[in-house]
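C-alpha cells incoming
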C-alpha cells in the first residue's frame, strides 16, 4: 500500500456560512465551493481550495456542518462548540487494497466503504489506531487536476 497526497483537512463548524466568511475575509481565500448536503453522511460540506505555485489545487479545507440532529458531527461540536479540526484525508490509488492492508495491520475501520464528498470511495480509521487522529482514506479522484 502506498499513501498518496494529503487531500484535505476536515474542519467541523457550527456554521458553514460563518466559516466561509472567515476563510474569505480573514484568510483571503478566493476559491470556495458552494455548500452542498450529504444527508447519507449527516453533513453539509464545502471546500476551500488552497493554491500552489503551479496553479494546481493544493490541499483543501473541508468545512463540515451537521446536516440534522442525527449528524455524527454533533458529538464533536458538543465537545468543541466553536468547531475545529475533525479529520485528515489521504488519497490512495486503490481503496479496496488500502482497506485490506489497514485491516491486515490491525487498524479499526469505522463503518463500510462509502462514497464521500469528492464522489469517490472513502473509509475512516479509528483515531486510537492512528495516533489520535481520525483519518479518512479516499480513492484518488479522477479528472480534478490533482
Amino acid at each position: 500500500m502506498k499513501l498518496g497526497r494529503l487531500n484535505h483537512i476536515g474542519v467541523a463548524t457550527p456554521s458553514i456560512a460563518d466559516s466561509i466568511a472567515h476563510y474569505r475575509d480573514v484568510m483571503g481565500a478566493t476559491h470556495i465551493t458552494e455548500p452542498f448536503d450529504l444527508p447519507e453522511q449527516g453533513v453539509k460540506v464545502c471546500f476551500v481550495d488552497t493554491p500552489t505555485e503551479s496553479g494546481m489545487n493544493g490541499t483543501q479545507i473541508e468545512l463540515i456542518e451537521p446536516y440534522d440532529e442525527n449528524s455524527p458531527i454533533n458529538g464533536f461540536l458538543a465537545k468543541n462548540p466553536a468547531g475545529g479540526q475533525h479529520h485528515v484525508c489521504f488519497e490512495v490509488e486503490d481503496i479496496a487494497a488500502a482497506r485490506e492492508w489497514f485491516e491486515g495491520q490491525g487498524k479499526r475501520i469505522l463503518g463500510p466503504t462509502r462514497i464521500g464528498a469528492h464522489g469517490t470511495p472513502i473509509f475512516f480509521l479509528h483515531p486510537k489506531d492512528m495516533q489520535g487522529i481520525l483519518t479518512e482514506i479516499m480513492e484518488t479522484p479522477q479528472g480534478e487536476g490533482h
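note: The radius of gyration is 15 Å.
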